[in-house]
Amino acid sequence: MENKDYNVLLYYCYAQIEDPEAYREEHHLFCIENNIRGRIIVSPEGLNGTVSGTEKDCQKYMDYVHSDPRFAKTEFKIDTHAGHAFAKIHVRVKPEIVHSSLRHLDPNVRTGKHLEPEEFKALKDQDDVVILDVRSNYEHELGRFKNAITLDIDNFRDFPEKVKELEHFKNKKVLTYCTGGIKCEKASAFLLEQGFDDVYQLHGGIIKYGMEAGGEDFEGKCYVFDNRIAVDVNKVNPKVISKCHVCGTESDRMVNCANPVCNEHLPICEKCGWELEGACSVECKDHPEKRPYDGTGYYQKNTNGYNPYKGLIRKQDKEKTKNIIHE
Fold first, then answer.
1. Residue 135 domain flag
2. What are the catalytic residues?
3. Of all residues in the chain, what percent are helix, strand and coil, respectively (each to 5)?
4. Facing residues of 113 across strands?
């Protein structure tokens, strides 16, 4: 049996950060010093991250986040893994913790009613309910709740434009869901702003639903933003709903096209994956910039000049100076 002595943590917290740049530096240095890897966004509106580490290191990381009063309410979704789910640590400052084009909305002021997984499960099949997937196409094509309404969007920032297609559901209970809950905070708030009166959100998203409610009626796999790419959710009535982009056979094996210019997120079966060397087409296979394929279909993102050790030298110099003074 595979030894899963590492954890993967998925979390977010909407909280005001006065100096995101200063906090980014502090936060990423803590990650370096405690062997935490992953992708973290620091924004004036809060934190959003997926990180990995040993169980002990992840506990230290959660304690570190919770020790700051601004983030004391942060809820972590904890999964087990055989090793690090990331190759590096990136902590970046961005305008929003999820790119939504809805910066004027503060979920701490108004958002949809939070439903715990068992509450969501009990409510989702009622006649006056609509289940709304607020994720992007490549996510809901791999897996989604049975009977869910999906939107044709390539990015969450396109969500507001699509809401006008939902006008006929204004007399229904609208249950929104996403991977970990973060997109629903803004999506449900926007629905309320647009005149939808009875709006809910799955607290903790698909990941928490799988952990606490067995994942019943979630069909397919859940796309995740680390080197696992896709994870199982449903332990009750699992079903594969996606098909190989190349040959059309049933496949929930998600890859990023090996051609970085394309980089589409697509289900491709193992046979076609090897035949096309991780590409989604012959054209992409023959592209001069095609990345080497190792069978996973996961590629570390370009760092774009990001230096995770920025500030570390300065901190070490400060410590040396302090020691000299005390000596």
1. yes
2. 178
3. 30, 20, 45
4. 200
pLDDT per residue as tens digits for the range 228-285: 999 999 999 999 999 999 999 999 999 999 999 999 999 999 999 999 999 999 999 9
- Give the pair of three-digit tokens for residue 81: 């893994």
C-alpha distance from residue 74 to each of 23, 68, 221, 317 (Å): 16, 10, 25, 33
Name the domain boundary from 196, 223, 250: 223
Q: What is the pLDDT of residues 23-76, one digit of tens each?
A: 999 999 999 999 999 999 999 999 999 999 999 999 999 999 999 999 999 999
Q: How many residues does the chain have?
A: 327
Q: Which domain holds residue 218?
A: 113-223
Distance, CA of 234 to chain centre: 18
At residue 192, what is the residue type? L
* CB-CB contact of 224 with 256 (8 Å): no
- Amino acid 196 reads F
Q: CA–CA separation, 190 vs 207, rounded Å? A: 23
Q: What is the DSSP letter of 292?
A: P
pTM, entire model: 0.89
